């Protein structure tokens, strides 16, 4: 009796994309592998976190400027809707808005300096003043030392040939 053949296995079997070029050979792919290495380094994650935090901080500072600085400048500049505005020859100059943005910039720069730059400089100074670990001997120094020890051992054997003779492991009959 003849064994039954599996019908679904009679057709061509998929063996992969053998007819297509290897993507590792394509120059664009090589550039993408460098991009992949760049993405997988820790710096890109730190950069992404900094952008998110910077965006949130900008929103806080902008809200502070809109909620407190603009009204304060408006009150100092004469109050009302036109406070912080100077009109010359029919042209309004909004010096209050400029002053508000200038104060916002100075506040942002101060916060960045005191919360990021200054602590980083102190950390780098602390690391610079720490004593460096004593470096061990280099590979060349170790090899020179081994050579000198072997040479001294060889010289001592040449000077006293009886010192190199070992007793026989088998006891002598006698």
Q: Topology, pairings included?
A:
Layout: H1 27-40, H2 42-76, E1 86-88, E2 91-93, H3 95-129, H4 139-159
Antiparallel strand pairs: 1-2
Helix pairs in contact: 2-3
How does this structure look, described?
Helix content is 60%, strand content 3%. By secondary structure, the protein is mainly alpha-helical. It has a domain at 21-127: Orthogonal Bundle (Non-ribosomal Peptide Synthetase Peptidyl Carrier Protein, Chain A). The chain has a two-stranded antiparallel sheet with strand order 1-2. Strand 1 (86-88) and strand 2 form a beta hairpin. Helix 2 (42-76) packs antiparallel against helix 3. The chain is elongated and about 115 Å long.
Give the fraction of residues assigned to helices.
Answer: 55-70%
The profile of the biggest β sheet is: 2 strands, antiparallel
**Portion in beta strands:** under 5%
What fold name goes in the CATH topology slot of the domain at 21-127?
Non-ribosomal Peptide Synthetase Peptidyl Carrier Protein, Chain A
CATH architecture of the domain at 21-127: Orthogonal Bundle
Number of helices: 4
Mean pLDDT: 75
Overall CATH class of the domain at 21-127: Mainly Alpha
Radius of gyration: 40 Å
